[in-house]
Amino acid sequence: MKFTKLTLFTLTALSSTVAVRARDNPKNTIVWNTLTETLPRPVSDMTATLIPGHKSGDDDVVLIAGGCSSEKGNEKFDEDFFCTEVTKEMYSFNVKKKTFTKMADMPEARYRHAAVAIYGKLYIVGGRDVDDNFVTPINVYDPSTNEWSRVRILPDQYRVSDNAALTYEGKLYVVGGYGAEYVAQTFMIKIDLDTQGISTKASMITPRGDANAVSYQIPDRRL
Q1: How confident is the model at residue 53 (pLDDT cuts 50, 70, 90)?
Q2: Is pLDDT at 66 greater than 90 in this prediction?
Q3: How far apart are CA 33 and CA 15, in angstroms?
Q4: Residue 3 · residue 20 · CB < 8 Å
Q5: Strand pairing class (47-51; 30-38)
Q6: Cβ atoms within 10 Å of 108's Cβ, excluding its own
Q7: Which of 104, 131, 182, 191 could form a disulfide with 172 if both were Cys (CB 3.0 to 4.6 A apart)?
Q8: Do 106 and 113 meet the contact criterion of CB atoms below 8 Å apart?
Q9: What are φ and ψ of residue 90, in 5° steps?
């Protein structure tokens, strides 16, 4: 029987996996396990993105990028919560070997950002720095060279954190999140990674911060 596994990383530096039985199993059993391996350092508000390998899953990795690296996590100041230490570090977790490897640092420290894998590369967009300023560069990481490069800068009207990022037909989409003064956003933009051009798409009906999104292609089927 086939299993799908999801690896989760938390502020406590614990690593967990969940095994979900194949959809044709009537029991749909979900089993959680805590790994003996732990994150190299506690972190929250980071991204964890699966980069599929090329050897039937033997070299699948999860890239854990940035985040709040303060051991206290987000702390309350007056009526708001902030992180006093933000990291630019990135680690690769080998799903089969269950090992962590330090990779090249991101160009900028950021947390509360979004990440998405597109054609084997990792794209980082949005987020804030330790002073609560927006981090506007969109950066891309190439696992084959362990190098970062810049795609473009987010225009002022699309500066955002706590946003979602997804891909469709090789394009990068940025959706929702918090703008200035933590006002939830409705916008969705499409970024052409070849030309770096930005086009506006239909806005969401409801403003959403702390947004997440995923693209899924439904297989063709007869009704």
Answers
A1: confident
A2: yes
A3: 9
A4: yes
A5: unpaired
A6: 18
A7: 191
A8: no
A9: -140, 140
Average pLDDT over residues 145-174: 97
Q: What is the pLDDT of residue 5?
A: 45
Q: Note the pTM of the prediction, 2 decimals.
A: 0.87
Using alpha carbons only, give the angle 168, 144, 10 rounded to the nearest 5 degrees.
Answer: 70
In CATH, the architecture of 41-201 is: 6 Propeller (2.120)
Nearest to 151 by CA among 179, 182, 115: 115
Distance CA 155, CA 40 (A): 34
Write out the two tokens for 75: 């702390």
Q: What is the mean pLDDT of the chain?
A: 87
Sign, CA dihedral 158-121-69-95, equals positive
Question: 169: Cβ–Cβ under 8 A, 6 or more apart, which residues?
Answer: none
Q: Could you give the maximum distance between any two Cα atoms of the chain, in Å?
A: 57
Region 72-95: what's the mean pLDDT?
A: 90
CA distance 203 to 3: 36
The predicted-structure confidence for 105-114, as pLDDT tens digits, reads as follows 999 999 999 9
